[in-house]
Specification:
Elements (H helix, E strand, L loop, with lengths): L1 E3 L2 E3 L6 H11 L11 H12 L11 H23 L3 H23 L20 H13 L3 H18 L11 H11 L4 H15 L7 H16 L9 H8 L1
Antiparallel strand pairs: 1-2
């Protein structure tokens, strides 16, 4: 109650919040302050921060993935430089040496190429005689183009066998098929024919580089096949040797 002009008047009740504040101030220092519980506060903060307005400038998933990748690369390089003698400089020297070796192998062996599942035909669309293929092979050999020389000489071998009727002219025949069929007519040269077909496939489809020795070996086979006599069907090799002896 208060005294106003000598009249006693009752003080109206304080609002609930103000009343609470007054009671808190009236407490002694030895009592702990009243605090909000942690779980509701944490949940309220989580709901507030989950609103879209706070995430408009967040990086995309691709940016986050790239950042993670580059962090991993950085950690990997740091670990490698720590383990490498000479630190970062030693690591750079090793990387340069590896790249130099790879470049040397690529220059020496060429670009590796997988062999196609379907092997292309031995001949192109324009038919040529064995003599024409031999002339083309010799022209390439004179210039040191051994890959092209080997290809043309193998075509000369197969075309010559077709011209002698030891092979049936057949479009689309591969080098391996020609070698297998010719080996049945000329069994004494079966192994050399297979080697010649393999050399042709290596330089044509395998990305290998032929040498002069490869071409000379194939040219010698071409000459030997010109002088070879076909085996008669059903004749035993010993009998053929006795007949020619």
């Amino acid at each position: 109650m208060t005294v106003t002009g000598g009249v006693l008047q009752a003080v109206p009740a304080l609002p609930t919040a103000a009343d609470t504040a007054v009671r808190l101030l009236a407490r002694g220092d030895d009592e702990p302050p009243v605090t909000l519980p942690r779980d509701p506060a944490r949940e309220a903060a989580r709901r507030e921060l989950s609103k879209q307005m706070y995430h408009e400038n967040d990086p995309s998933w691709l940016q986050r993935a790239l950042e993670t990748f580059w962090d991993w690369v950085d950690d990997l390089l740091d670990a490698a430089s720590t383990a490498t003698p000479g630190g970062a400089l030693g690591l750079v020297v090793i990387v340069v040496a590896v790249l130099a070796v790879a470049a040397a192998l690529w220059w020496r062996l060429g670009t590796p190429r997988r062999r196609p599942v379907t092997v292309p035909a031995l001949f192109d669309d324009r038919p040529r005689s064995a003599a024409e293929h031999r002339a083309a092979a010799e022209a390439h050999a004179a210039q040191g183009h051994w890959n092209q020389a080997v290809q043309e000489r193998m075509r000369a071998v197969v075309r010559a066998l077709e011209e002698r009727a030891l092979l049936d002219p057949r479009p689309g025949r591969t080098a391996d098929e020609a070698a297998a069929e010719a080996g049945r007519a000329l069994p004494a040269h079966t192994d050399r024919l297979r080697t010649a077909a393999r050399d042709f496939d290596d330089v044509t489809y395998g990305g290998r580089t032929a040498s002069e020795g490869t071409y000379r070996r194939l040219a010698a086979l071409d000459g030997d096949l010109e002088r070879a006599k076909p085996a008669l069907a059903g004749t035993h090799p010993d009998a053929r040797q006795g007949a020619t002896g």
